[in-house]
Amino acid sequence: MAKTKELSKDVRDKIVDLHKAGMGYKTIAKQLGIPQSCKTCEHVEDSTHWLQIEPLTSTVQGVTMFRHRTPKGRYECTVSGLRWVCDRDVILKYHFRNWYPYSQLLIDMQYGQGGPLLDITMELGELEEVHLPHFVCLGTNPSLRNEMKILHVEEHGVSVEEVHEVTRFHAKILHPKFSAIAVILSYIFFGNVDVHCDVVLYMAVKKATVISRLYMLLRNSSQKEAVRDREKHQVSQGYSELVLSSPKGSLKLNSWFAVKNPHSSSINPEKIQLLPADTTPSCCKMVMRNTGVDIEMELIGDDERTVWRDMVPTDEYIPETHSTSAVLGGRASS
Question: What DSSP designation does 219 have?
């Protein structure tokens, strides 16, 4: 695994424990929220020296809330990728907001979503800086950073703020005033933008059959929470969430990809689409006989190029040989 950025002792200890339990370093990185690499933008500058911390979580009226209390320092939330700088003790909480109610408003403003819509509240203190996550890949078009703004959704309307600096995965603003807040991108570029995404699989073994559902999600977006909410009943019925390897490079938003699994008896639909953040992610259902073979999967673009490939080994999905809890939230790339 690549050298991490000033991980806390708790996170370092967790890495050691998970590795001793047989989990690969790539799996651990994904489970702990350490950002995935993208070869398309690996030359783009990113800010460094962030202490990664896990939030305290709670559920209020069905909404998952995340809360951090931190002393002076530079921090990154392992759930959302949100970063902040404070020069004294602060307490902040946030939750993901759905982009859908603001879709038409963004179109009227000639903008598209560039990252998650986060509703952030300061319970104590103020921040010197906040670095909002974005899912836009700057590798093919670095000038896109000049087309990014910050959207504030307030009780009586919306406002747009200039970005102080855009790095590989974040947009920085100084002395932020919070509301629901997000990175947005000029609409003229939004329809053809390259983005970072993740692939998630929900899987269950039902006697002689393996049933799985594969999703493509924009990275650090509210789509992951939406999918977890959609799948929570299935998880209670024995399904497991597996965060698979990410595509090695960026992909075009709104593109279609054929799903291939050589051992599957049924794939429905046969293609899935990488959709914007205000849309429920595209999903395909795969059914295969439980014959004790590794599950091999590919995503192939319209140009016939394989953009993603991964494999779930037999011992990760057969309950008799592998604990379900060990694969929840992450697994090793092939």
Answer: T
Residue appearing with tokens 């849309």 = 279
When computed from its CA atoms, the radius of gyration of the chain, rounded to whole angstroms, is 20
Alpha carbons within 13 angstroms on the beta-carbon side of residue 307 total 26
Contact indicator for 120, 149 with CB cutoff of 8 Å: no
CA angle 207, 286, 115 (to 5 degrees): 125
- pLDDT number for residue 2: 33
- The pLDDT score that the predictor gives to residue 29 is 59
Residues 292, 314 contacting (CB under 8 angstroms): yes
The token duo for 288 is 């295969």
User: What average pLDDT does the segment 132-161 reach?
Assistant: 91
What would the 3-class secondary structure string for 101-161 be?
HHHHHHHHHCEEECCCEEEEEEEECCCCEEEEECCECCCCCHHHHHHEEEEEEECCEEEEE
For the segment 160-183, what is each residue's pLDDT rounded down to a tens digit? 999 999 999 999 999 998 889 999
Tokens 């909404």 found at: 63
The 8-class DSSP code of residue 249 comes to S
Calculate mean pLDDT across residues 213-229.
89
**CB atoms inside a 10 Å sphere around CB 128:** 15
The residue assigned the tokens 């939750």 is 95
pTM across the whole model:
0.82
**What one-character DSSP code corresponds to residue 136?**
B
